Amino acid sequence: MEKPVNENSSKDIIFNAMLKRNPILVSGMVVAPAIMTADSLSRAATLAAAFSLITFFTLLISSFVPKNIVYTIRIIMYAFIGSLVYVPAAIMLKYYIPDEIGQMGIFFPLLVVNSLIVSRSETIFFLESKGKMMLDIVFCIIGYDAAVILYGIIREIIGAGTAGGKIIGMPIVFQVFSTPAGGFILLGVMAALLRIILLMIKKVRQK
Amino acid sequence: MVFNSEKSDVSIMTDMLIVLIVLSGVAVYYYGIRAAVVIVLSAAVCCLTDLICIKLRKKEFIKEDISALITGLTLGLMMPASAPYFAVVSAAVFAIVIAKQAFGGYGCEIFAPAAAGFLFVSLCFPENVLTYPAVTDSMQKIPLSSLVPSNVLRSSMTRIFITTGSSPVSALELLVGKFAGPMGTGIVLILAVAAVFLMLRRSISAITFFSEAVVSGVAVFLLSGYDPLSVLCFFAGGMTLFGMIFLSCDRSTVPKTKSSRLLYGIIVGGITVLMQYYSKTENAIVYAVIIAAPLGIELDKRSLSYAEMLKTKKGIFSKNNKPLKNMQETLDILDKNDGEG
Amino acid sequence: MELLKNIVIAAFTSVIVENTIFSRALGTSTLIMVARNKKNLFGFGLSVTFITSIVSILTYFAAKALKMDENSYIYTPLVYILILGAVYIITLLCLWKFAVALFVKIKKYIHISAFNCAVLGSMFIITEYCETFTDHLIHGIGVGLGFVLAVYITAAVYDRIYSEKVPYSFRGYPLLMIYLGILGMAFWGFSGHIINY
Question: Does domain B9-340 have CATH number 1.10.3470?
């Protein structure tokens, strides 16, 4: 279970939210939509947009749910709020990007019960002050979006040999990375690379 | 890591190396120089990648550890002689970096590296890795270019067997491996002798080998309507017999206790038949070995905890009220292995 | 006999061929949380399977009404969350009333077993691809069992994945993803194509 970290400055909060506690590359959250749908830049961007919209507003509204309500009921309320936020989000996104949203299939409505809403809200976000919470939520979402878009770009290049839908003349294309299995493996490798980067940052800071 | 505490890993690997070199020789005889290039390339890339990973991890390089060479030769023999060089290199790098070193290196693997590497490239480049040149009399000239023209390639014998339900080649051709397929995995005669050799030398687990061979053989015999040729076709094609020796009995990933080896063999044999007959999957043994790997680990844990439970109870094992000698030996070896990691 | 054969094939498909984790990655976050704590595996598995079975039955009736409206995609998650919430509360109340010891045991993780992508995802998938009541029920049970299988396979190697012999950069979550990926490639052999979603 995740625990809140002692964060003194905004810089720490941003760094932790985006990198050290990156939802997808460190904490293993909201993995399914990324693996199944983010196999290209456009689809990753669509996922990022849908995720940001639903998660931000759901967490914002859920933060006002009284904490004296029993935990059992609070979780249901968060999911319920998520499904309410989904309604305008679905109408809006279906209007502007109908094809891309259609390609997301069941993973678009599944975002209403993503781990940030159901789990991290209780363990971290709602234990912080309102200001810190907003900063944390925003940069968590930005961290997820950035990771997913990078993931989609890499997957498209090595799995399909295209970038943004255009063929780029890759000499070798590894078809397996367009499948869920390859998605898992690439995510694992990216998570390992982030860990190496964080280690290097830590060493630089210590010097 | 070794079940028989008298036999060292080096000795086991040497035995495997001898058998793999013999199989490589036959593959070169059938497929010519290109087969040699593929096998040598696979072995070289595996060894080099392993060395680089060991250096990056700042670990000590042990010159007696020829596991990377074994993986390379195994992987090379699983490829068609016409495999593109980029596919061979990709498989080798994946096998060593992802399936071996990422899991902790030699002795810590969960999946047989050669199986994982082959699975990776068969999903990445199915049209290159799952099509094969025909076998002619000897030393045929397959172009040495990376991409072999597709007009000289064909589906494997196993694919035809799975599709039609009957063997497209004769029993003699099955025994000597004269059919389209992976270059070193279909020579039943040599593989059978190799299996006996390795079992007698205690370099592979006889329990695992026999349990998977018997279960799958009987199942295929029944499913094919009591046709012995189909059973031969099943073992010869789809790298089944080869996989039973070199993949499922890989000394790093095979379970450590007798009971878990037996169950593991049954599971591998069962999944192989299931995948080949119902999912129509070619090279089903590779998938079966990967799926059964975590089950083998769990079986080991269960048999260890069962053994510990039995150890603490009195008067259960034998008339002398002492644990059976082989059980005690098993516990000692498992304790020693726990200490080594 | 034919019905039994269809049931077996449907069950095999939903547990193995279209496994929730390996074919659709649904519930991966929950799997990571649960695989850590091996003691509650059986209880967790039972609660997931129970919930997916019950909601699959209720989804059958709800889907009939939802399919009549072409704009139902807007409020379908709302309806399914309400169904899930109702099942969750009723389950807790029944346990609290009739089996207090079990209630105390599972209350720690029942919310994770109810509100996760695997359960909600199964409701959407069942609505999309299942027609008859039997199909709904078998797939509902199959999704739960498939999830439990994946959790069990992962918990079996948890110690190895978090072992100190694993390079630090790969230890834990990165290696877990690679592990699921390699198993996913193997499970691919059962289906041979990307599963619809």
Answer: no
